[in-house]
Amino acid sequence: MASTSPESPSTPEESRPLTPPLSPNSIEILETAAGIALNSEDPSFLIAVLNELDVAVLTNRSLLILDHLIQHHPNRLCHRLCKIIFFPRDTITEVTSAVALEIFKSLFSDAISGEFIKPFLLCLKSDDRAVENIPAVNKLLSHFSPHYIPENDWPEFTTAVCDNLDSGKEKVLQFVLSVINKLFADGTEYILELRLETLCDKLKKILSSSDVSLKVKEAAVEASFGCILRLKNAVNDEFLQDLLRKVMNTVFFNGEMKFHMSQEGYARFILDHLVALARADAWFLRNQIDKVLKFTFIMMENPQCEERTRFLAIEFVLVLVEDKKGCQILVNTGDLHIKRMLSQLLCMIATVNENTALDNRDQEQCILLDQGMKSMARFSRALGGRFLLEGFPQPFESCFNSEEWQRRRAAVSSLSIISKNCSKTLKSKVDLVADPIMKMVDDMHHHVRWGAMYAVEELSKYLHPELQNHYHQKVLPALTKAMDDFSDSKIQVQAAMATYHFVENCTSNMLEPYLDEIISKLLRCLQKGKQLLKQWALSALAAIARSSQDRFLDYYRTVMPYLNFVMTKARGESNGLLLSETISCMTAIWMVIGKDKLSDDTQQVVQLLASTPISNLDIHDPMRIQGLKAWGRLCKCLGHKFQPYMEVAIPCLLQSARLTLPDVANIEESDERNQMIQIKTAILEEKATACVLLRHCIAELKEGIDLWIDEVAETLVPLLNFYQHAEVRIAAALGN
């Protein structure tokens, strides 16, 4: 019969628990039990404690013993559990080992978990039962903390690691390589320095073997790159160079790729580590560069490879050339690799269709095009645009002469990118980019013509004034012709944008022969164009006025009726953006013309500004800033004639200068917080603009501002520091 007394459980004699009855309050008895569990050669007592965890009436007693062991003897308990988990005797069941493993995982910290690796490694080579436990040990490997391996254990530990790399068992090799890579990941590779040459020899043997799986080779490659990157100062350079050669031999045999493309993941794995090596020490690749580049370009140019593999191959070349020594290594290999890289990037940029070709500023829908353009920028920046265009014209000429419009457009886009990123070296050789681009402005395909207009814009921004000095006779007629193409509004808009940027750095003498034609075309755009074209036509007219100076007087009376018409229409349609651009254009022209030629032209603008209080507009309405700038420009060009308008202008400027910033500290929602930050930025810009304009009014009007001096001082003095930082930035904006 079963007894209900916990002291007399009804169990067979042979399975009755070995632990003696314990009093929970008896520290002495617990310590005695601990001594038996830890000191005895026979693990039976500790095994019995583990087994009792499944016996309900005895669980409390076992937990008391385990708790005492964990608190007072953790390291010794760890070693004892290792023996039970990994080296069970015939009398210990797999269930008992599993229970010990779960206790080990749940009760011990990283510092103690590291203790199990060394004894396990020592027995892996000879104990088949230990090999069977590898899956269980792998679950603990993430807890392995090499930092806690005592220094006096390093020799035995590294010996065990190296010895197990001779194993013919797949599981053993994978596990040991995982331990090695864990050392590199945790920054404890110094432990391996004691047997580094032996370790490298073993890794070379694995890499050369035809009997190991691809998974083992991947782990060996990772360990090899770990040795190269982390331990290169601990061993002879040639020794590690040979290790890299062995790595590359895993993908080549007699100069040919020796693994099937179904193993592309392995190639990508090697590329990933080559990128890391090039980023850390590109010079180390010097002896293997031919083989490495051959492998890289095979992967880059193979259309069957996944995009991520090809991008990784491109990334390796880019990282290599962005390093000064790595760039020299690539150049020393000859022209072939640079030509192949340029050809590959041009092919990527040519991956456009009718829908994406004109959207040069939004690349989200075309990853390949975006990657190609970014890579061309990095490649040209590293090698130098002049070096590329003078030394390697063939890839570009091939595209320019192609019957495919995509390739012609890719060549034009590439020159735009190179001009932007290599402006310093190209300014003395503008013809390298300007001549081929100007040949494309009349291309038969509209996408190529658009690309040429965009290229003119980029060259105007980054190669001025050299481009204007040498090419105004070609560029200005091409721009006026493109603006006359009403069959393609996008080309018109791009031509107007290019006109604005080009004439900004022209002299009046350059512009004079073309003013009739170009102003006529811009006014026609104001008449018939859509909103975006009108905006850029207005910007271009203002830029022409600034650059042509007195010569613009002949066109003033012709231009103003168009501007008044656009302003009136924009106001009637509540088109704030077009209205602000029109006022900006008009006031910029007035600053050039001067107050003596203005007559009553300013009345309409003054009335508009007076009837549209800035405080009534949305903080992001462009008329807020343009309205302030308009008052400032009117003051500057009218001088003392501006005094009648001060009763409206000065309060408006003071109101903007006194704006307060919103408090974003207590806003938790990210979207709302971002919105408030944008508002804060807009307010800061408006305050800075108002401060600068008040200063300009004081300088221009002098004693004429006497009535407002107290209010102006009261506003500006507290903002003095803010004003000083903002003055330079806003003064430049005022001029535009």
UniProtKB/TrEMBL annotation:
Primary localization: cytoplasm
Record key words, sorted: Cytoplasm, Protein transport, Repeat, Transport
SUPFAM superfamilies in the record: ARM repeat
Coiled coil: none
Biased composition (Low complexity): 1-12
Region (Disordered): 1-22
A biological process term (GO) from this entry: protein import into nucleus
Keyword Transport: yes
Entry GO CC: cytoplasm
Subcellular location: Cytoplasm
A Pfam family annotated for this UniProt entry: TPR_IMB1
Keyword Transport set for record: yes
Residue ranges of every copy of the Importin subunit beta-1/Transportin-1-like TPR repeats domain listed in the record: 411-564
Protein's UniProt name: Importin subunit beta-1/Transportin-1-like TPR repeats domain-containing protein
Organism: Salix udensis
